[in-house]
């Protein structure tokens, strides 16, 4: 079988398997980024809180999920979650092992890891917002929700975009670890193709190239987003 046939989209080719794996990687990473944004926003608010208890809890979250190896977190969520579901199922009369969905577990695990990094990005972005603008808004009696919508959130997103691009790349690489659960993402698809054809070097190089292509496209998307947000702020500044 030639190289073109192995990477083709016919009955004996692995092209469609690799593309589906790449699509699964993108969907998993996007889901993890959204979940991480929810956790990261809450944890960032906790770390900025005046209450010491909330700050300690926020610091504990970021310390644990940035300090524990990502693979160990995925193992704990997948096998620990499966054990918990099995125990609950057996209490209701179910027999045998009950597994948890690999995609859901992978998205939550990678998302919570991502949330630890996003929390620091959001916290730094909030601290970068000019205190004078917020004080001026309070001085004229602007409601808190209006101040957040018109001043705080737009500037936080502007300052956070570069950091979120880095977090996306981290989550993209962490998604490869979810292959240990059997989810058919890009790394798992590459492993299956390499094992079936015994062309390990060829398919692993192909998998690496696909990851680099995804990374390159992601960099362009975030770069354009940063440029667009920067232009909008310049226009608003010129109007004022």
UniProtKB/TrEMBL annotation:
Organism domain of life: Bacteria
SUPFAM superfamilies (UniProt xref): MetI-like (SSF161098)
GO CC annotation: ATP-binding cassette (ABC) transporter complex
UniProt name for this protein: Amino acid ABC transporter membrane protein 1, PAAT family
Pfam families listed in its UniProt record: BPD_transp_1 (PF00528)
GO MF term set: transmembrane transporter activity
Its membrane topology: Multi-pass membrane protein
Chief localization: membrane
Subcellular location: Cell inner membrane; Cell membrane
Domain ABC transmembrane type-1: 22-222
